[in-house]
Specification:
Alpha-Beta Plaits, 299 residues, Archaeosine Trna-guanine Transglycosylase, Chain: A, domain 4, six-stranded mixed β-sheet, Pseudouridine synthase, alpha+beta
Length: 299
Amino acid sequence: MSPSAQTLEQLLNCSFVVVDKPRGPSSHEVAAFVRKILGVEKSGHSGTLDPQVSGVLPVGIGKATRLLPYLTTKDKKYVCLMKTGREMSGQEIKALFKRFTGSITQTPPKMSAVRKVARQRKVFYINLLQLQSTKVLFEVHCEAGTYVRVLVSDFGRFCNGAEMLELRRTSVGNIPESACHSLQELSDAMWLAREKRDESAIRKILMPASEALSLPKIAVHGSAVEAVCAGSPAYRPGLSLFEGGISEGKEVALMTEIGELIGVGKALMSSDRIKNEKRGAVATPLTIIMKRGTYPKKW
């Protein structure tokens, strides 16, 4: 059934909460707070933020924790306040930012949990927002796995040192800052649901997994759903609908005809090819979250 038709318990079994992470607690602690507030058994976060960094932190609950790897790879946007070792003009700052736009090489900082080896990352843009003496406010849009703290350190080679004063993540993939909710909002909404039987607020906060993933969708006929749940590829005759923008080898959301998420698959055909083909495998399952037996077996 579609998210709007699901019971609250069903939503709590597989949804995301986009938390406006405050400065102070770790990302792991925030995910634990969400788990306790909602009374669910499982929770996990996508894209770790350092304790002193705030902003967009998607937290998966229930079965949605199995989908977190598909969010971790999404590009990110940040707003950073930096202090430089000397005063610089706006033109100098913009020239510096241009130097670090495009493909760059970074080594993760010592505090990170990943291997400390140099790797290539892409910076899509760095925009100067405000400049006041040695304080520089800027926005950066970058590939997942890019460390803004390292970026600031690298800036320092050209401006007599640089220090990151504050950092906030403003988006993860297509999830914007405006989709965030504070832990207090989440707590209040859950209290209304439990004590006043008013689920309107918590339903607005719980984001359906398919919406959080922001992947092109392939919908299969009801007669093919159980086969896909069992690990079978989705075949062209079993397709009900499909969106444009599907690329061969890329991830897609596998859906039922009424908007339920079956899981995530890998496309074996592009949208254009699907349109022209009458048979053949269209996508193969990667991660299935729908329970076996939800739809009748038709083979």
